[in-house]
Design goal:
2 copies of one chain form a homodimer. Helices cover about 25% and strands about 25% of the residues of chain A. By secondary structure, chain A is an alpha+beta fold. The first copy, chain A, has 5 domains: about 160 residues, Molybdenum Cofactor Biosythetic Enzyme, Chain A; about 45 residues, Molybdopterin biosynthesis moea protein, domain 2 (Alpha-Beta Complex), CATH 3.90.105; about 70 residues, Molybdopterin biosynthesis moea protein, domain 3 (Molybdopterin biosynthesis moeA protein, domain 3, Beta Complex), CATH 2.170.190.11; about 60 residues, Beta-clip, CATH 2.40.340; about 180 residues, D-Maltodextrin-Binding Protein, domain 2, CATH 3.40.190. In chain A, strands 31, 32, 33, 34, 35, 36, 37 and 38 form an 8-stranded mixed β-sheet that branches. The radius of gyration of chain A is 34 Å and the shape is flat.
């Protein structure tokens, strides 16, 4: 294999250009075959033809109130001083809401306005005007009128109007059929693979299932082809067969970029025409749009976030146009990034963010940008699109975000920014169980980062375990230093064991922190500003060890679990972290210290209902039991409060 | 049957009170039984327990770029002036995105930064830092970490994260089962009735199908009971059996108000406890909430709009809480009512409105308020909720509306307010076919009402056929009088026949307008301000007939189809209207005049893309053919434009 054999991208297109090319080229493509369905079964489907009412609703004049039917003329002149008596049966007929107006009657008087003045007569004290309290025939629907246009999507409300108008079956567009062909020699299918014993390099194929769900959500039917090796001829055969068969579209997944084993483009160029290869978006760049025998074929990127963005920008909108509908826009809101977000010029970036409402602002905290991390989308509450002509967005100024979750959920979120601890995940889950409307959203930027976020109004509270190396206390002096002028409560969440995480069996016989200085030892570190890093630096200073001389001191990670994962994978021999992380990955653990992990809560949020809910939750036995089950924690002081006054 | 036998409502509750009662009483009710589903089949379902990752993703260190794997240390010092050569195979290994990082290597250099300097070596001009362009094991997901909380709803994105984390099946809450029992002796089922020959008083039962669709949409399963007569014992048996069986909830539909044949309340009081009977909302007032054997039972109102609002306020939110989810809030927007909207004090009103964006405002035009008219919901784009402590909302001031359609649809709407003509429906359908993103929304307030709407910025254009009785011209003088200072285009839509609509066979031998003065004739009129009313008044004046002496002159309707429906149903013997309406309902038609029907378009909208799309559509042969098929129209001048200049 050599450099010269690589593909290169065609001229990359901007998102707008690429979308216009797709729209124009497939403008005439629509699903014209129909299915006839019973109306209640047609919810979510799109009408293939306009529908006109066959019956009027109501089909007769009906009482709109409980009362009596009368001839309006017989009531003229009635007043409190001159009540009029009406004979039951000939001048007045009792009638309930919905009943047919008897022939010869033209008004209804509400029962509340009627006095029964004898066995055979009633009295009224006000006249009726003609047609009062009557639902006239056709008031709702007149036979022959247009009920719904072609391309209307049937809702449960529509079911009512259709049935009332005498329409019991409707012709809807059949669902478009999409073949998904995942490609790549590294892929294995969870349905057949021995997933407990994956070989290095094997990856569970997930994109076809994600894409299948997205296709179904916009009204299509997906069929998944078995995983295809990156073999030109195999991919070619699959596309040819799909085109000859009854598929309306093909998505190959993977092999769409410019690597030497990326066959999608060659196959598509061979069988048809390539409209787009490469779009200046991130993630999603290596998407290919082609047309073969008049049908659209997409080469979808192999990274899950890339493939989802390519779907949402190209495939979904095209499928909807084929069905005569519109791909739904995501709702948007103005949000405030908690810090400056840099972005590459010339590329439109889809930045995933966590959102929450702090004070009167929706604040946005950026998630990692890797296109390979599906978790950056599942954890995201929104997406900030940074245009290609921008180098990023400033912090503390509003910018538009597309929302991935309901507004109410973003409103009712407790935003935690700061140090990571596994008990925060347990807390999030526990709150969600008892309070489905309340979300705890945590971002991991280290203890000092959390205090900075409080300072800037970017969160409701911060998780912190900052050791004052002068007096051995936690958090208090840092709050006083970094949040001057603020009234704050420190609520203890847990005490926890920090220690050295080493591989099972401790093969390099590490005993304590001094071993980090050994030449045969490579460590993994936590990021600057994290309480764990401060703890490490403190211990190194106590031991007189120069951090600059440690192997791997400059490689850092943002969570305890990432430290444990680095040790498990052999990236490093050792890292400082919490017991729970070591235990989770079945690694060995050498205790170094028991430390205090507090929630730092500014007074202005402390009394709020959502924070009180959180505080009530952490002292429940059920929550404490779940924390105890993680190992390495003490909840003896959980919930205890220290008040820090700005003027103290 | 007598007045004294009627029920009365329990003390009616406000919406807030009633919702709190339901929330509190059923706080402990949740669906705890689970189903285990393959992950791809679990989309839309709710997790019954938190899910933790079983595998890390990636499960190995992988290249994040196409390029070469290197040992970072071997690259230190490389620069443009001092390139470093690396031996292929021992110091550099070609690697594609996603490949396993070979043992002993710790960095990847992008292929774009690599020169092949010989068969066996490559050259680099910049150093690599350790772990650059490598996706580390666990970067996306670390085994044992929390993937999703209990009560999380699975999306297609989640499918990717679950499968990548080695989770292939999940335990989800089973769907709640709801029995729907429609009640009422007047109801017939479309599946069994002879719908072409309904007897007077018979009504097609639609509510159970609407409710079924709404239940499915929030994750429940509905079962429909056959229609039940309003019989106390029958209803009692059904509820008892459902409670004993595996239903989680029962909805009886109809018979929930205080009429003499409304048994729902008595049955529920008999079997259990009534929590709420009557809520101060409109529509939706006569809802009953009860609890029987610990399970919720709702008496749903019989009018479709009432039953939908009662569902959305009570049943849907409770079903979602039982599933641990939240009933989705409707998105909201600030809208400007085109006129003052009065509302009853003490009642929270759910007013259905049509919405469209005119200039920079979303304008709202009220739809009829009848709770019995499902079309007021299917035609609505939004709902304005007028609080119970308000007597209405002022026109031209913003008020919040809940949106029933996507924002993009409300943005891309052509708002037509004015005279009604059947060709507007055809036009709406026709535009929708060619331009799925564009909606034509028309409200019928008569020709003069349309000009007033233009004046107030409430529409893009108005349909108008206002006859100047002085000179026989249409529209021009009215525009000059009512829209002074405005530049306007008059675009002809159609010429059309207006005439007398009479029953088939013309039983009363009506010949012309002078017959309206006959004592044996009862007419139906159009509303004041409509072009048809002006035309009628003009003809009556010509004939020297006093309108005040005509039977039914004071009864008016807002559309031609309503006039035809009134004649068909016997409400009136005759009415003035267009041929197409008469023909649609197979009535006879006596021509009176051919009149000109124009679209009045202010200059500021005339050149907009959406109006140009409309103007292109009306001159297509396909549109003209559909208009011709209605009968009674000429399209000879369709599309011709008259320009009216304010300064002319």
């Amino acid at each position: 294999m050599a450099v010269s054999r690589r593909n290169v991208y065609l001229q990359k297109k901007s998102l707008t250009e690429a979308r216009e090319i797709v729209t124009r080229r497939f403008a005439g493509l629509s699903i014209n075959e129909t299915e006839t369905l019973a109306v209640p079964d047609a919810i979510g489907r799109t009408l293939a033809a306009p529908v006109f009412a066959r019956l009027s609703s109501p089909g007769f004049h009906a009482a709109a109130m409980d009362g009596i039917a009368v001839q309006a003329a017989s009531t003229y002149g009635a007043s409190e001083t001159r009540p009029i008596a009406l004979a039951i049966g000939s001048q007045a007929i009792f009638i309930n809401t919905g009943n047919v107006l008897p022939a010869g009657y033209d008004a209804v008087i509400m029962i509340e306005q009627v006095q029964q003045s004898g066995d055979a007569e009633v009295t009224i004290e006000a006249p009726a005007f003609p047609w009062q309290y009557i639902r006239k025939m056709g008031e709702d629907i007149v036979a022959t009128e247009l009920l719904f246009s072609q391309n209307h999507t049937i809702t449960p409300y529509c079911v009512g109007a259709l049935l009332a108008g005498g329409i019991f079956t409707v012709a809807v567009r059949r669902r478009p059929r999409v073949l998904i062909a995942p490609t790549g020699p590294e892929l294995v299918d969870w349905q057949s693979a021995d997933t407990d014993n994956l070989a290095p390099g094997q990856i569970l194929e997930t994109n076809s299932y994600i894409l299948g769900g997205l296709i179904e959500a916009c009204g299509g039917i997906s069929e998944r082809h078995a995983i295809v090796s990156d073999d030109h001829h195999a991919i070619r055969d699959i596309i040819k067969k799909a085109m000859a068969g009854d598929f309306d579209m093909v998505l190959t997944v993977g092999g769409s970029s410019a690597g030497s084993e990326d066959h999608a483009r060659a196959v598509m160029a061979d069988l048809g025409e390539i409209l787009v290869h490469g779009v200046t978006i991130m993630p999603g760049k290596p998407v290919i749009v082609g047309v073969i025998e008049g049908k659209p074929v997409f080469g979808m990127p192999g990274y899950p976030v890339s493939t989802i963005i390519a779907f949402e920008q190209f495939v979904g909108p095209l499928l909807c146009r084929m069905l005569g509908t519109l791909y739904p826009d995501k709702p948007v809101a103005d949000v405030f990034p908690t810090r400056k977000l840099a972005s590459k010029l010339g590329v439109e970036e889809f930045l995933r963010v966590k959102l929450g409402t702090v004070g009167d602002r929706i604040v946005a905290t950026a998630l990692p940008r890797g296109a390979g991390s599906i978790s950056t989308l599942t954890e995201a509450d929104g997406i900030i699109r940074i245009p290609s002509n921008s180098e990023g967005v400033a912090g503390d100024r509003p910018v538009q975000a597309e929302l991935l979750r309901p507004r109410a959920m973003i409103r009712d979120t407790i935003v935690v920014v700061g140090s990571h601890d596994n008990t925060l995940d347990i807390l999030a889950d526990h709150i969600r169980i008892e309070h489905p409307g309340l979300t705890l959203s945590s971002s991991h930027v280290g203890s000092l980062g959390g205090l900075m976020a409080i300072k800037k109004g970017g969160c409701h509270l911060a998780g912190s375990h900052l050791l004052d190396t002068e007096d051995g206390t936690y958090n208090v002096t840092y709050v006083q230093k970094y949040l001057p002028g603020r009234d704050v409560r420190l609520v203890n969440l847990v005490f926890r064991n920090q220690g050295l995480i080493v591989p099972k069996g401790n093969p390099k016989a590490i005993r304590d922190i001094s071993d980090l200085a050994r030449e045969d030892i490579s460590m993994i570190n936590r990021q600057a500003g994290s309480g764990t890093r401060i703890l490490l630096d403190y211990r190194l200073a106590q031991l007189g060890i120069d951090p600059g001389g440690l192997n791997g001191y400059g490689n850092d990670e943002f969570t305890h679990m990432s430290i444990a994962a680095a040790v498990l994978s052999g990236t490093a021999d050792v890292g400082l972290g919490i017991f729970a992380a070591a235990r989770a990955l079945e690694l060995d653990f050498i205790p170094v210290v028991t430390e205090q992990y507090d929630l730092v809560i500014p007074d202005e949020f402390f009394e709020s209902a959502r924070i009180q809910t959180l505080l009530e939750t952490i002292v429940t036995p059920a929550f404490k039991d779940r924390v105890a089950a993680l190992g390495g924690y003490s909840t003896a002081k959980t919930g205890s409060v220290v008040t820090i006054r700005a003027d103290a």
